[in-house]
Design goal:
Layout (H helix, E strand, L loop, with lengths): L1 E6 L5 H8 L3 E7 L3 H10 L4 E3 L7 H8 L4 E4 L21 H14 L3 E7 L8 E3 L5 H6 L5 E9 L7 H5 L2 H7 L3 H12 L4 H10 L1 H12 L6 H17 L9 H22 L4 E5 L3 E10 H9 L6 E9 L10 E9 L21 H5 L17 E2 L8 H6 L4 E2 L9 H9 L44 H4 L12 H7 L12 H10 L3 H21 L4
Parallel strand pairs: 1-2, 1-4, 2-3, 4-5
Antiparallel strand pairs: 5-11, 6-9, 7-9, 8-9, 10-11, 12-13
Length: 536
């Protein structure tokens, strides 16, 4: 049995696939989310589950468990080029977790590793900004870098000394609102295009907004930023005093929101000690900083003579490996060059015309009435069936059905459910059924209010509660267990936590059936090396 450490383990889908081969023994798993920890521990009771991977003591792991053969895991990595454009943060701290993953490889020196991530990881979107502490590493391993422009403020909102302010940390901090104040006003700004949501948000946050408004309205200053802030909160107060209507708010708060976003991003440049090439004010305020691709960073370090891995990477479709969903994930595998000169990812055994379908996975659950909360989930006893689809039979490995939990359907949602046919989504609804739901109806994703098609694979399973996925033939939401089946979790694998946490765990997971195929490929490579060296 090869000893494994699972980083960013989630609920344990990747671990499960490796364990199903009976070739791997998961010794340690790191997962910071309490609900996911609970699920992982319940389903992998022999594994030492630890919390924050950033505090990992790899020397201690080696002392307790000996040499680790394989490291697996899926560190979160959010692209920065547009993902954070509408937020007050330029840098996703999740990206730093990729470096933690690499640090684990460097310190544990496993024979092989598997890293799972979003399908666009190898694209230009996923880059690190260069900070001073990484300068030597980037130079040592000759990691390609380029100048990237980070837009701080659009030209429409530029004011006289904006460029001077973003260059000066003390001035940035002088004018930057507390984070909770920004977030509160930003809630209002984000729903300004939807009058019903705007009025609702203003009502919900009235006491908090009024409490902080005076702080900005009465503030005496000769600076433009303070004037804009005072005007924004003054407008909010005017609304509550019934002096203006809700639709007059956006014009007076937009500039203050944009300036605060500028200040927040400019502060991050200092806080993260980023290497700045120059600040510019040509058509808006921007800063030119150096960046390098996440994949180049990983590849350059791990393939170097210092660490000696050979790598391969590919975007895999879960349906090719027997999952009833077209989930695309980027997989990187590496093996020590001393073990093998090359490493490949497994080929799928299912052609497109053989893909398993939603029906294959969940049809047998149609007869069971779901519950609405984890408190009601005491398990449903069910008889064995003889006429099940092969996949359903494979996943139905217990006679007790758990996690067959759904969200309650509102009257509005039920109206939509009843008119949508299999394969249709929110955009297929009549305009009269689209009102009072989303801020911008036209930009609603195609996965929202999707009624699954029984005779096709599903799309990527995410948090299907938030996406309002609908059962193919029943007018109800897809249950946690049905989503888990689409991910190829067997029924004996039980999810813990609140209903939403359970849906989220399922959506975040690696399909175990695909993980198993990858694990078998790694095992074959390691087995060959053992035989070659005469080990038994």
């Amino acid at each position: 049995m090869y000893k494994v450490v699972d980083l960013f383990a989630g609920a344990g889908g990747l671990s499960l696939g490796f364990m199903q081969t009976q070739k791997f023994d998961i010794k340690v798993a790191f997962e910071n989310n309490p609900c996911m920890q609970e699920t992982y521990r319940l389903n992998h009771p022999k594994v030492d589950v630890k919390e924050d991977v950033c505090k990992a003591n790899y020397d201690e792991i080696k002392r307790n468990y000996g040499e680790i053969d394989v490291v697996i895991g899926g560190p979160p990595c959010q692209g920065f080029s547009n993902a954070n454009r509408q937020k007050n943060h330029a840098i996703s701290q999740n990206n730093m977790l990729v470096k933690q993953y690499i640090q684990a490889i460097v310190q544990l020196k496993p024979k092989a590793f598997v890293m799972e991530n979003v399908s666009m990881l190898k694209s230009e979107v996923h880059r690190f900004y260069l900070d001073r502490k990484d300068q030597n590493i980037v130079e040592k391993y000759k990691i390609p870098k380029k100048i990237t422009e980070l837009q701080l403020l659009d030209e429409t909102f530029v004011f006289e000394d904006a460029l001077d302010i973003v260059k000066d940390k003390s001035k940035i901090e002088m004018y930057l609102w507390p984070e909770e104040h920004y977030l509160l006003l930003n809630v209002i700004y984000k729903v300004c295009k939807n009058s019903e949501k705007l009025i609702k948000a203003l009502g919900k946050h009235k006491s908090k907004l009024l409490k902080i408004a005076d702080e900005y309205i009465v503030k005496k200053s000769n600076h433009f930023i303070d004037d804009v802030s005072g005007k924004a909160f003054g407008t909010i107060r005017k609304y509550y005093n019934n002096e203006i209507s809700a639709d007059m708010i956006v014009g007076d708060i937009e500039q203050s929101i944009m300036i605060q976003r500028m200040l927040g991003k400019a502060k991050e440049v200092f806080d993260n000690d980023l290497v700045v090439e120059q600040y510019t004010d040509n058509g808006g305020i921007a800063v030119n900083i150096y960046s390098y691709a996440v994949y180049d960073y990983l590849e350059s370090i791990l393939q170097s003579q210092d660490y000696g891995y050979v790598l391969n990477s590919k975007v895999l479709c879960a349906a090719d490996y027997g999952a009833p969903q077209k989930r695309m994930r980027f997989i990187i595998v590496g093996v020590k060059k001393s073990i093998s000169k090359k490493i490949a990812l497994p080929n799928g055994s299912f052609d497109e015309d053989q893909y398993r379908t939603v029906r294959d996975a969940i049809e047998d659950l149609e007869m069971f009435k779901p519950v609405y909360s984890p408190a009601e989930d005491e398990g449903i006893e069910r008889p064995a069936l003889s006429n099940m689809k092969k996949l359903g039979h494979q996943l139905r490995d217990t006679n007790v059905l758990r996690n067959h939990i759904v969200t309650k359907t509102t009257d509005t949602a039920m109206e939509r459910f009843k008119v949508l046919k299999q394969g249709q989504n929110f955009h297929c609804l009549d305009d009269s059924l689209k009102t009072n739901t989303y801020t911008d109806v036209k930009r609603t994703q195609n996965t929202i209010y999707l009624r699954l098609n029984y005779d096709e694979p599903s799309g990527t399973v995410v948090n299907v509660r938030k996406s309002m996925w609908i059962h193919p033939t029943l007018d109800r939401a897809v249950s946690v267990r049905e989503a888990a089946r689409l991910q190829t979790f067997p029924d004996s694998f039980v999810f813990c936590g609140t209903k939403d946490k359970q849906y989220q765990q399922v959506g975040n997971a690696v399909p175990p059936i695909m993980a198993k195929a990858i694990a078998e490929k790694i095992a074959n490579v390691l087995d060959k090396s053992l035989k070659k060296n005469g080990a038994t």
